[in-house]
Give the backbone structure.
Amino acid sequence: MHYFISPVLWQFLVHWLRHLALIPPEASSIAPYTDTFFLFLLLISAFGTGVVVLMVISFSVLYRKEKNPEATQIEGSTLLEATWTIIPLALFMICFVWGALLYFRIYNPPTNAMDIYIVGKQWMWKAEHPGGQHEIDALHVPVGRPVQLTLISQDVFHSFSIPAFRVKREVIPGRYTTVWFTATKPGTYHLFCTQYCGTLHSQMIGWVYAMKPDDYQAWLAGSTSGSSLAQNGERLFASLGCNACHSGSESARGPNLAKAYGSRVQLTDGSYTVVNDAFLRDSILNPATHVTAGYAPIMPTYQGQISEEGLIDLVEFIKELHSNERVQQTLNTSQIQSPGLAAGEAKNGVQNTEPHPSEAEHSSQGRRSVKTQHRTAPTTPGMVNQ
Amino acid sequence: MPKHTYLNSEYGLKSWLLTLDHKRIGILYLFTTTFFFMIGGTAAALIRLNLLTPGGELVAADTYNKLFSIHGIIMVFFFLVPIAPAVLGNFLIPLMIGAKDVAFPRINLLSWYLFVTGGCCELYAIIWGGMDTGWTFTTPLSTHYVNTHVIAAAMGIFIAGFSSILTGVNFIVTVHRLRAPGMTWFRMPLFIWSYYATSIIFVLATPVIAITLVLIMLERFIGIGVFDPTKGGDPLLFQHLFWFYSHPAVYVMILPGMGVISEVVACFSRKRIFGYTAVAFSSVAIAVFSFFVWAHHMFIMGISNYSALVFSFMTMLVAVPSAIKIFNWSATMYKGSISFDTPMLYSFSFIGLFTIGGMTGIMLASLGMDIHLTETYFIVAHFHYVMVGGMVSAIMAGLHFWWPKITGRMYPEPLGRLAAAILFIGFNLTFFPQFIVGYMGMPRRYHSYPPEFQVLNVLSTAGASVLAIGYLLPAVYLIWSLKYGKIAGPNPWRATGLEWQVQSPPLTENFTETPVVDFEAYDFEWLENHTKNEVQTVG
C-alpha cells in the first residue's frame, strides 16, 4: 500500500491537523494508512454531500415559486437513476475494498511479532510481558518492533483502544482476541476501554509508553518480577498435576506437549486443527470439546480453578516447551532417571539456557503453524530469562 | 371549522380510551410518545451538562450510566420506533388510501394499550432506581454484573414490542385489502410504500428482540447459561441476536421519515416525485437488505475476518437505495415551483443531515476505518445525524404538514420557520464536534474524560441548549395554535392526496362515500387546472 499523496505533503497535513487537535498523533506504522483512508472517505463524503446540497440550493433559487410559478411535471429518467445508482455503488465498492485491505492488515499480525498478554477486568488493564513484567493500566512497548496483544476479559466485555495507534479490539470473556501494531514514535499515548463495562468504565484508562529500544530494555530489566510467565506456568503445570497425564512418555494418558505449540493435530472427530493460544486455553477449560485423536476423553476440566493470568502462564509455558529443552525436562521428571544420566541431561539443559537475543519468530493465532524458534523477549546477556 | 369532526363526534374520557377510530388512536400515541420524548430529552440534557467538565462532577458515575441507558432505551424503543408509524401512520394511512379505518381497529387500540403497559413497566424500572446496562444490554454485564432493574426494563421493551408487531400486521393488511377502488399499488402515495416496508420489518424483526430479551431475563433470573462462557454459552451470541433486530430497527426508525419527505417535497415543489418507481422500490429494498447487515456492529468483536467482509459488503449495498432516494428528492425540485414553508424547511434539514449521517455510515462500514472509529463519539455523532438530524426533522416536517389536517388549525408560519432554523443550527453545533472528538479517540459512554476533549464537549453542550429551544418552541406554538391558530380548511397546502380532499379535521368515518381513484398520485397538473376544491364538509 502506498500513500496517495506525497509523503512530504502528508507530513504537513498531519502536523497541521494534529495541532488543530483534529486527529490524534500518528504513532504506529498503520496510523498514516488509516488517516489517508479517512481523508479519502472525507473527500467523497464532501463530494456527495456537496452535490446534493448544490442541487437543493440551486433548484431552490432557480425554481422558487416567485420565479417559476408553474412546475414542469417530469416522471423520471432511467439514465439518471442508473447514473446515481452506479456511481455511488462504485465509490462504495472502492471504500469496501480499501477498508477490507486495511482491516486485514490490522488484524493479521506478522509472524515476527512479540507477544504481550492483556487481561481486562472491571475496571483495570493488566499487561503481562513474557519476561515476567506486569503492569496495570500501562503498557510499555518498544518502538520499531511489531507487538501482538493477546487479550481476554475476566468478566464482561471490554475493548482495548489506543487511538494514537489506530487500533482497537474487543476484549471478551471466554476467548482470546488479538491485535497487533508497530509503534513508530516514542511517546506516551492514551489507552482507553471503549466498551461500556459498568460503573468505572471511564476510569478504565491508562497510558501506552512507546520507548526507544534501549530505554525499553532498561525498563524490562528494571520491572521484571523475577519470574517469567513460562516459569509461572511451569509451576502451575506441576501444582495442578498436569504432569500425571502429559508426562511426555510413550504410554502417557495425554498428548506430549513438548512440540505441541504451532503444530497441526488431528482430533477424535477426524478434523485437523492448529494448536494455538485459543486451542490451549479451550483444552484446559473444555477438554471434552477437543480430544486429540488416539486419546481417551478423560481430562477433567479446570474451569473455575485457574485465573486468566494462570491460563496465560500455562500457554506461555507450553509455547516455551518448543524452544527450551531444560523446561522440557520438567515433563520427564516423573520418570525414574539414574543420577548419572540426570546430571548429563542437566548439563545439556544448562547449555541450552543461554539466551538467544536473535529476532523472535513464532507462530500464533490466525497464522499457519511455523516451527517455533527462540522467542524470548530481548534480554541482556547473563540474564536467565526463559 | 366544520361542525362535525372526529374530535367532537363523542366526548368524554371513555370515548377516547375505548375509541376504535384510527385518528384518535394516533392522537393517543402522540401524547404518549411526546411524554417519553420529554423523559429521554431530560436525560440527554443531564448527560450533556455532566460532560461540560472533564471530571464529570455533575452526577456520580453510576447515575451517569443510568442516564445514558434511560436516554437510549426511551428514545429508541418508546419514541423513535413508534412515533412515525403509530402517530402519522395510524392517522394517515386509511385516509391516504381512501379507507374508513385500518383493517383491525380493535387490534389497533390493543397496540396502544400494549405500548402504554410497556411504557409503564419501563417507568417503573426508571423510577425504582433505573438500569445501567446501556440500551444495548451487553451480556454478561447485563446478566451477571449489574444489580439494577434490568428485568423490568427488558420486560417493558418486550411488551412494547408487541405493540409494534400488531401495528405492522395491521398496516400490511390495510394496504393490501382496504385500498379504494382504482388505487393500484403504483397510484399510492410514496408515504404508503415507506410505511408498508416499515411494517414488514416490524413483523419480521421485532420477535427476535422479544426472544432475546426473554433470554436475558431467563439468564439473569435463573442462570440458564446461553450467554455464559463458563456454562458453554457464548456472549457473542447475544450480540448477534440483539443486532439482528436492532439494525433493522434503525430502518424502522428512518423509513417512515423518508415517506414523509416524499410527500412534503412533492407538495412544496408542486411536482410528482422524480422517479416514483425507483423511490417506491428503494423503500422495499432498504427493508429487505436491512436484515443482512447486523454484524457491522460487531466488526471488532472477534467475528472472523471473512464474516466481516460479507457484512461490510452488504452494508455498502444497503446504502445505495438511500442514496437513490436523496437524489430523486433533489431532482424533484428541478423545474418545480418551490415554496419554503416550515415542512419544506424541515425537509431540507433532513436531506442535508441525513446525507452527512449516511456518508459517515459509509466510513463506518469500511472495515479498517471502523476499527479506529467504532465505540467512540464518532458513532454517537453518526447515529444522531441520521436519527435526530434525519428522522426528527422528518417528524417535525410531517407534524407541521399534517397539523392542519389533524387539528383543523394552522400553526404560526413565521415561528415555524424560526424553529426549523434553530433546530438546524442547534443540531449541528451539538453533534458536529462529536465527529471530531470521536476521531480524537474519546470513547462513548464516558462519565469523565481526558481534559483535552473539553472544548469540543462544551461546544456540543452549548449546541444542545439551542437544540432544546428548537424543540420547545414548536411545543409551545403548536399547543397555542389549537385555540388561536388560523382555521385551516380542507387543503391549505393545495396538496394532492385523498387526505386533502376531505374536511380538516376529518369526519370519524373519513369519507362520506368511498372515493374512486382514477388518477395517478401527485397529480398536480389536475390540481392546478381545477380552481375548485373538492370538499366534503358536513354541516
Chain B is about 65% helix and 0% strand. Chain B has a mean pLDDT of 95. Chain B has one domain: 17-529. The longest helix of chain B spans residues 61-97.
